[in-house]
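TL;DR need structure tokens for one chain.
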Amino acid sequence: MRDVADALNEGIPVALGFEAPIWTPRREDLKRITSRRLGAEVTFNRAWSAGAGCGALGAALGLMPWCFSQIAQHTKKRLATTSPIAFQERGGLFVWEAFVSGHAKAATHMDDASLALAAFQARDLRAPSDVPDEPAVNLAAAALMATGWRIDPWEISGAGHVIAASS
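>> reply
TL;DR here they are.
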């Protein structure tokens, strides 16, 4: 995390991906509360609320605030976003969701991380999220706010950016 802080201190924009749902849908229909999000979740038939998604989400709820606090301890440049547009406009820290599932899943967690990184590096951030926006609770935005990062308040109710890895 110190390397991330050092890069931010030098004015270098940094993207940090989590292989976990960073946002959950905020739906009116009770029957659809835990239904899969669209896009990659339909393609890979994996809902954010299924077993692996819930486990990863639970870990991320603890890991995201820890990571953001560790970075914040070493930088005064605490500008963050979960919006690729805002990231391209002003830099800072960009938090995104890595979706690695189904046939794209690798043998190890490190291999999954490598696939996610390759997918991010190949992506034009102007391209749409692999899980379309819908009303949401953005857990990454909440963790950033809770740990003292400057983030646009609207992001708490906006979907984060998802990039799906492919095999």
